[in-house]
Design a protein that fits this description.
single chain
């Protein structure tokens, strides 16, 4: 019985330690492109709601968070120069961005803290990308439609 208590104590101690490490990692990822490009996501979200739909060649995302830190993959997408993004993004606290990650792990920030497109899409290479949401202490509302 004593062994079970000691083993349980170790498990609980590691769980607490990893939970704090996860929090720090999620909040620190915002400016770390290598971590953002990683296939694994680290995300802490409170009162986070997301509605994601892909119908044919159209992706629709509606999200709201009262707290969001870390990164979360939205989808894989085949980007072409005909791809059109329509984004309404309101960030009322913290920092928030929408990124595309190419197969060679290059991170392109499309939107940051607002609805203004930050890159010239015609300059991006066509191909397969991963779209992610990245935040740091962010409170946001997002309505986005992507026509592929």
């Amino acid at each position: 019985m004593k062994f079970v208590k000691v083993a349980l104590s170790f498990v609980l101690a590691f769980a607490v330690l990893f939970s704090f490490t996860g929090c720090a990692a999620a909040e620190a990822i915002y400016d770390d492109e290598e971590a953002i490009a990683n296939i694994f996501d680290t995300c802490i979200a409170t009162r986070y709601v997301e509605n994601y739909q892909k119908i044919g060649s159209q992706i629709t995302v509606n999200s709201h968070a009262e707290y969001f830190s870390g990164s979360q993959k939205l989808c894989d997408m085949d980007f072409t120069h005909d791809t059109v993004f329509n984004v309404e993004l309101t960030v009322t606290q913290g920092k928030f961005k929408i990124v595309l990650i190419s197969e060679d792990k290059t991170v392109y920030t499309l939107y940051e803290n607002g609805s203004e497109l930050l890159v010239d899409l015609s300059q991006l290479p066509e191909g397969d990308y991963v779209m992610k949401l990245v935040g740091q202490h962010a409170v946001f509302d997002l309505d986005m439609t992507v026509n592929l």
